């Protein structure tokens, strides 16, 4: 059973706001873990999850970062590219005003071998390796 989970499954696991869906999601993770095939979290689902946790559930940056770090340390789930997630979380922690999305996109571009990341977003341009396109 090799599976990836959608944002809504990941959110249920993290916030446990619907017991029936949480139980179904947890069963899925437990079954995958028993088969020694952790569920996959693709970067897009992680990006959406941060947005949902921040905008819908009003979680603060530290709580979201802690939740994502816990997932990184779990044997039950795996990320599409763990080094990208680790770097994004590191940069996000170092830059208080940064958006997680900018940190994740920048980290992924760097891991794909791009030496420059260009943006029109002045806030994002404050991140390491990001340049303002003028």
Structure description:
- This protein is mainly alpha-helical.
- It folds into 2 domains: about 1-80, no CATH class; about 95-134, no CATH class.
- It contains 6 helices and 4 strands, in the order H-H-E-H-H-E-H-H-E-E.
- The protein has helices spanning about 5-15, 20-35, 45-55, 60-75, 80-95, 100-110; strands at about 40, 75-80, 115-120, 130.
- A two-stranded parallel ribbon has the order 1-2. Strands 3-4 form a two-stranded parallel ribbon.
- Helix 1 (about 5-15) crosses helix 3, helix 4 (about 60-75) packs antiparallel against helix 5 and helix 5 (about 80-95) packs across helix 6 (about 100-110).
- The longest helix is centred in the N-terminal third of the chain and has 16 residues, at about 20-35.
- The protein is globular.
- The model has no long low-confidence stretch (mean pLDDT about 95).
